[in-house]
Write a structure and sequence with these properties.
Length: 211
């Protein structure tokens, strides 16, 4: 049921929303692609994929859902800084927390875009997870998932261009901008140029004529 739930959300919500934000001419990474269900709905020929589970990548290649791919932990990406114009990361950040965001930020080009979907950290989401487990929609291990703290966005240089909340109940889902960002949320982020940090020189070290 867990897999079915994510596939419904991918098809009904994430793929349509991400398509509306994608620059299809850029270099794109699907970070945490699984076997490529979301990638198959996006229908991008030049999408590069990573996942921590090797068997998922093998399945995706066999099904023709993904092309170029490599096994990798999201928190330790094997790419140079500022490699990708756009990064897609769906339903992974709530497992990695801030370390995953740091790596996504690092490999995104300046002024590049990050399209993220994750379970945010709040009491509402914790209660929702408990309910989903009791209904058999989520596996019990989801109680131990750390979830992602939205306030961590301010720790890296990003601009929030858009955000929506996924609402609904299996098998129907949609997004809304009119409700609080709780539960499964989706963000469009832009990596902004970093301003150089200027460390003030202590006055006792300044030349006399400057003081």
């Amino acid at each position: 049921m867990f897999e079915t739930l994510y596939r419904q959300v991918n098809k009904q919500v994430l793929a349509p929303y991400f398509k509306s934000c994608l620059d299809v001419d850029g270099v794109i990474l699907d970070a945490g692609c699984g076997w490529g269900d979301l990638a198959s709905h996006l229908n991008l020929s030049h999408l590069f994929c990573i996942d921590v589970a090797f068997e998922q990548l093998v399945k995706g290649r066999r099904l023709g859902a993904i092309g170029s791919c490599v096994q990798s932990d999201l928190s330790h990406l094997p790419f140079e800084t500022e490699t990708f114009d756009t990064i897609i990361c769906a339903n992974v950040l709530h497992y990695t927390g801030f370390s995953g965001l740091q790596e996504l930020y690092r490999v995104t080009k300046t002024n590049g875009c990050m399209l993220l979907a994750f379970l945010e950290r709040s009491e509402y989401t914790r209660r929702s997870i408990d309910l989903a487990i009791s209904l058999g929609l989520f596996p019990p291990f989801m109680r131990e998932v750390p979830l992602f703290d939205i306030s961590d966005f301010h720790r890296v240089g990003i601009t929030i261009e858009d955000s929506v909340t996924v609402i609904g109940f299996p098998p129907w889902f949609t997004v809304s901008r009119d409700v609080s960002r709780r539960g499964l949320v989706v963000y469009v982020l832009r990596k902004t140029p970093q301003k150089p940090r200027i460390t003030p020189c202590p006055t006792e070290l300044l030349p006399a004529e400057v003081i």
